Amino acid sequence: ITTTSSKINASLTFDILTVVKASQALSGEIVLERLLKKLMHLVRENAGAQKVVFAIEKDNKLLVEGYLSEDGEAMVCQSQSINSLTLLPKTLITYVQRTHEPLVLDNASHNQQFNSDPYIITHQPKSILVLPIFYQSNIVGILYLENNLTKGAFTHDRVEVLQILAAQAAISLENANFYNTLETRVAQRTQELQNTLEELQRTQLQMIQNEKMSSLGQLVAGIAHEINNPINFIYGNLTHISNYTQSLLTLVDIYLENPSISLSAILEKAEEIDLEYIRADLPKLLNSLQTGASRIRDIVQSLRNFSRLDEAAIKAVDVHQGIDNTLMILSSKLEGIKVIKEYANLPLVNCYAAELNQVFMHLLTNAVDAIEESSVLDRNLLRNEKGEIRIRTELRQHNQVAISIKDNGIGMTAQVQNKMCDPFFTTKPVGKGNGLGLSISYQIVVEKHGGRLICHSVPGESTEFTLLLPCR
């Protein structure tokens, strides 16, 4: 009796050590493909199976994810429907999926209940084990094991060992799926950012080719500032998501290191990492990534509207839309400045939309610079005024559309006004401007559109530019 007891204890100790070692191997893997291969090899080693097939349940459908053949080669499938494959006895799989109970056949071809299955008739297998895998009381997958060398290969002890491994496999699969989902979403956001960057680069290249270098710097600065905010928001949330993931994995590791740990100890650790808060906050963080990406998409759309890349020819456009898109791009420079829009009911204007937007960019940028310079000289403080830009449109006689942009900045002297449209003339410090903005604007309005560009400025008080465009 003592000898028999010693053998049983030794066997039990061996099984426990085997299970712990196998569980640790599974828990250390969060990449789904490697996890599936490792799981199938461990199952075959611990069960004495020749063939292993692993399927997961999605929307009440079984999809084969992994297959380990008799020659030991593990293959990861691409979620193939179990109904489209001939490598399994579907009757047995369906039975386990319905009953949620393990199924052991010591001699499948002689089992009266299942020997009519087409697979069993064709292949005449001997030992079969079909094992359900559960996570939080829900069936998440099925393991199919087969041994054609001997009958009764899957003993009660082996089934118990496999059930323990299946429980750990369920946890590891959940972690791997979570990791895979997170990686996919991060990859999607990264691709969106990459697409945004490429879109910006294409826009910049087009503007350079159209010799619009004078406004390109302003454009890039504004867009970079606007995109930087949602990007920082996205990356800030990724840090929290990473921390949440680490906390969840720490909770799993505690259980793996001590499988006999009490439920109260696990609950205590769950409370320590604030599992309920993680459960509630994680979906919100993922949604915030979508919000940030949507914001970037909207900015890019405004940029496309501003550039009018697909509208190089003259056509009828809404000038108010062009002004609004320009204001959107310059929003970072307009912080602290009050923008007043007084739009009249205007007809569409035949023009080169991208080039007209270029004029709006130059004039609005100059208005911002004038207000900033006035603030530095304390002129606004002396007058107790805040920075203000007033944009007014109206339809005048002789089918002319008037667009005026007025600021309460530093103003210009008569001498400066006389030279302001000369190429390379600027009153700004080195690095602030190249003196081409108003020169290009004059060419676009007067020479290309047959309009007029009028300036009225009072030194120390205000400057107003008015565009007069023919409305045809």
From TrEMBL:
Highest taxon of the source?
A: Bacteria
- Keywords of this protein's UniProt record, alphabetized? ATP-binding, Coiled coil, Kinase, Nucleotide-binding, Phosphoprotein, Serine/threonine-protein kinase, Transferase, Two-component regulatory system
Name one molecular function that GO assigns to this entry.
protein serine/threonine kinase activity
Q: Gene3D superfamilies per the record?
A: 1.10.287.130, 3.30.450.40, Histidine kinase-like ATPase, C-terminal domain
Q: Which residues form the Histidine kinase domain?
A: 222-472
Tell me what organism the protein belongs to.
Tolypothrix bouteillei VB521301
Q: Which residues form a coiled coil?
A: 179-210
> Record's InterPro entries?
GAF, GAF-like_dom_sf, HATPase_C_sf, HATPase_dom, His_kinase_dom, HisK_dim/P_dom, HisK_dim/P_sf, Sig_transdc_His_kin-like_C
Task: Give the EC number(s) under which this enzyme is classified.
Answer: 2.7.13.3
Task: Report what the protein is called.
Answer: histidine kinase
Which reaction(s) are listed as its catalytic activity?
Answer: ATP + protein L-histidine = ADP + protein N-phospho-L-histidine
Top enzyme class? transferase
What SUPFAM superfamilies has UniProt attached to this entry? ATPase domain of HSP90 chaperone/DNA topoisomerase II/histidine kinase (SSF55874), GAF domain-like (SSF55781), Homodimeric domain of signal transducing histidine kinase (SSF47384)
